[in-house]
Amino acid sequence: MTTTSPSPAATLPADWRDLFALTKPRVMSLVIFTGLCGLLAAPERIHPVLAFTAILCIAMGAGGAAALNQWWEADLDAGMKRTAKRPLPQGRLDRTTARDFAGVLCAVSVFLMGFAVGWLPAAILAISIVYYAVIYTIWLKPRTPQNIVIGGGAGAFPPLIGWVAVTGEITLMPVLLFAIIFFWTPPHFWALALFVKSDYAKVGIPMMPVVAGEKATRHQILLYAVLLLPLSALPWWFGAHAIYGVSALVLSTLFLALSIRVGLRERSGPDDDMKPEKQLFAYSVLYLFALFAALVVDRFIVL
Amino acid sequence: MNDVQQPDPRTPQQIRRSRNRVLALSLAGFVVLVFFISIAKMS
């Protein structure tokens, strides 16, 4: 485990709200949404109860992985303004409770998915949990500035799991959905990292702006935004219809325009309000919601 | 903005009771879900 400034020990019993906060509910909403979109966009149908179970398992798996992440990084979180108010750094939960809660969530999500929906989506769910909690959190994040690039795969699994829960097989389309989130993640997180750079530097996490500098990070953001434009349109080529295709082109062009603004500017000074970076970060969340919503609308309107 | 964390005004018993209620509801929900999954798998 990491050792920066140790989080205080809990004095009161764990409140359910703090346990819920461990699951990173805001991140989970995006995970649930993309998983649901993968499930709805799949070319077959699934019993509504099984569909609900699949989404519940995706949510529990993501929540369990997020709780493991907070359990491991409690001391680092205590040193960063953005995360210092989480339950573990505040001492509202003890670490053993957090770890046990995370373990139960992960185990139940995988086995319930396996028994109710299928063992292929359950296996992918298990891989995504290990990918986020072990490969990203423990291994990559403290070691390499490319942590976000490779770790981005963890967040890219939900639509793939949703799709496979329905069809029972891995085909090109869900892999494309995976790839879209994979390439969306670096510009999304690096935009954030640019305006909370000092936080990451303080606790020694080698985020790209800290290690490679702001200029290199801005260029990388631009590079990924350029790649995302054709990639987001690829599902149109491989079976989606014009509603998705036109939406993807419009949304990705705007993403690229905001990225160009971030990619070609320099911080004016220590008092720079970093407005373009904050706008890109906010838009990147909206972008993913809108792109996947367009995929589902496209599927149902054409039907 | 006030950055100081306000202490929880509830007693440990109240916190524990509230948590147990949520746990009971979650377990009941799980049982109902397993029932409906069984029905769905048979249909």
In a few lines, what is going on in this structure?
The complex is a heterodimer of chains A (303) and B (43). Chain A has 14 helices and no strands.
Spans of at least 5 consecutive residues with low confidence of chain A: none
Gyration radius from CA atoms of chain A, angstroms: 19 Å
Oligomer: heterodimer
Work out the helicity level of chain A: over 70%
Distance between the termini of chain A: 51 Å
Strand count, sense and barrel status of the largest sheet of chain B are: none
Characterization of this structure:
The complex is a heterodimer of chains A (303) and B (43). Chain A is mainly alpha-helical and 303 residues long. Chain A has helices at residues 16-22, 25-41, 48-72, 74-78, 87-90, 95-116, 119-140, 147-167, 172-195, 197-203, 208-211, 214-237, 242-263, 275-302. In chain A, helix 6 packs antiparallel against helix 7 (119-140), helix 9 packs antiparallel against helix 14 and helix 13 (242-263) packs antiparallel against helix 14 (275-302). The longest helix of chain A is centred in the last third of the chain and has 28 residues, at 275-302. The N and C termini of chain A lie far apart (51 Å). The model of chain A has no long low-confidence stretch (mean pLDDT 89). Chain B has one helix at 12-42. Helix content of chain B is 72%, strand content 0%. The relative contact order of chain B is 0.08. Classes of the chains: A mainly alpha (303), B mainly alpha (43). Chain A binds chain B through residues 12-16, 19, 47, 49-50, 52-53, 56, 85, 90, 92, 115-116, and chain B through 5, 8, 12, 15-16, 18-19, 22-23, 33, 36-37, 39-41, 43.
